[in-house]
Amino acid sequence: MRGECHLLAQSFDKALEDGRAAFKKCAENIGACILCGKAAVKLGMYADALTYFRAGLLIEPKNVVITQELKTLQKVILKKDPDLEVKLVQAAYECLSCDEQSKALTIISKAVEMDPTNLFYRTFRAQVYFNLKNWAKVIQDYWVIPKAQRKPDVWKQGGKALMELWLPVLAEFWLRKATQLSGGKDEEAAHLFQKVRVKRLYDPLTEDQPVVVEFTEFGRAVFAERDIAKGETVMTDLPMVMAQSVVSRNIPACFNCAVSLITPQIYFGKRLAGFDKDQRALIEECWPNVDIVYCPYCNMETYCSKICRQEAWDNYHSIICPRENPKGHLLYELIKNDGYGYTKDGQWKELWGGHYR
Ligand SMILES: [Zn+2]
Ligand SMILES: [Zn+2]
């Protein structure tokens, strides 16, 4: 009460003194915070004023008086020193060059407070938060920047922070943006994208297994975490989609599981007849016995076993088997002719150019 009177009587230092005493007695006293803040402003102690107002907002986050006072304070500071923000940024840069990250953070945070819409300050602060490994804060600052204005580096660094927070789907999105915006030139972003994706897809598969799958500079790689016994299953993975590559497309394979269906007769051709007894015995011993199974209705698909035939039937072949679906034969014709076929007006041309090369 006395402090308020001092304030009205313009005895600002006395008002501040009383306010401080009240604040010391009870830290939850919002009136004391406001009193101290107002008095500090009048005394030109802006940093102190900010501290008191902030303490007040902790007690009551949307206090109308404090919000108003903060706005006024901002104007007062700017009026007093229109270059203050620039100076703050300079000071923050200096701190960074001396590796004084926490100090840089305090300074740049003041600039952000003065102009929360300034995207440069946000980016700057996110960088400092990144150096301090405060990943969630990195994202909070970058999030304020509208998507269309995020530069490739922002997407990339955000992606890295999201990786640390292990939010893989978001991280992939951010890293892909970084790669796209750099026109594919940012190899680090592209590499990190694969790294997150491989970890996201393979970690659940290898959780209880003695291996981990990682993306390296050579591509996906499986690393053993302990010695693995011969014949031990370390990971089971089913592909979403599977097809033979252009190079291997003429090698007979199971349509369902892709196991090779190549026989010694196909592989060696006429040369097989010229082999001596020992060589033939060796082939007999080492070459897996291949019993090709066909779709009994169309003969278009080959399988390694009846099990695979059934699986293929249940999963897709019953929909495209020409016996079930007369249009299905067009698809198999296309496969047989390497993607070529007749157009409606009778031209022979490549109709399916989607080969993976
Ligand atoms: Zn098979
Ligand atoms: Zn069929």
Show the helix and strand layout.
Layout: H1 2-8, H2 12-25, H3 30-42, H4 46-59, H5 64-80, H6 84-97, H7 101-114, H8 119-131, H9 135-144, H10 152-164, H11 168-181, H12 187-206, E1 211-216, E2 219-224, H13 264-268, H14 271-274, H15 277-286, E3 293-294, E4 302-303, H16 306-320, H17 328-336, E5 340-342, E6 348-350
Antiparallel strand pairs: 1-2, 3-4, 5-6
Helix pairs in contact: 1-2, 2-3, 3-4, 3-5, 4-5, 6-7, 7-8, 8-9, 9-10, 10-11, 10-12, 11-12
Bound molecules: zinc ion (2 copies).
One zinc ion binds next to loops.
Structural summary, described in words:
With 357 residues, this protein is mostly helical. Among the domains are: 80 residues, Tetratricopeptide repeat domain (Serine Threonine Protein Phosphatase 5, Tetratricopeptide repeat), CATH 1.25.40; 68 residues, no CATH class; 31 residues, no CATH class. The chain has a two-stranded antiparallel sheet with strand order 1-2. A two-stranded antiparallel ribbon has the order 3-4. A two-stranded antiparallel ribbon has the order 5-6. The mean pLDDT is 87. Bound molecules: zinc ion (2 copies).
